[in-house]
Amino acid sequence: MWWDLLWKVLNFAVLVFLLYMALRKPLGSFLKSRQESIKRALEEAERAKEEGERKYQEYEQRLKKLDQEIEQIRQALIREGEKEKEKIIQEAKIMAEKIKEQAQLTAEQEVKMATLRLKKHMAAMTVQLAEDLLKKHLQPTDHERLVDEYIERVRRLH
Question: pTM value?
Fold first, then answer.
């Protein structure tokens, strides 16, 4: 029994030794290539991770810049809106001033026209009053004398 067990153990040891000798090179190269491929995969994963982090940082920077650009555009639009508001206010002031000047000119013209009509009316009334007074107080001799004086003046003019 001992021999039997010893014989089995010895056979197993010889088998393991022969397998080791026969498979050492292919198994070693397989394990080595497997180790290399795992190492490459880890390196690629590390590079991909670094590239991903770099892109993340880049996009994060772009996002910050985009926020800044949006704020700059917003500020520019506010400034432009303020300028446009001021321009509209100035144009409205100028237009109001023109309307005021036009209204003042129109009022002055109306006053001048009314004054002129009043003067014409007063002159007509004065002439009428003078005519009436002359008719009442003018004697035929006074009338002849006035006509003679008028004729004399006309002769002198020619």
Answer: 0.41
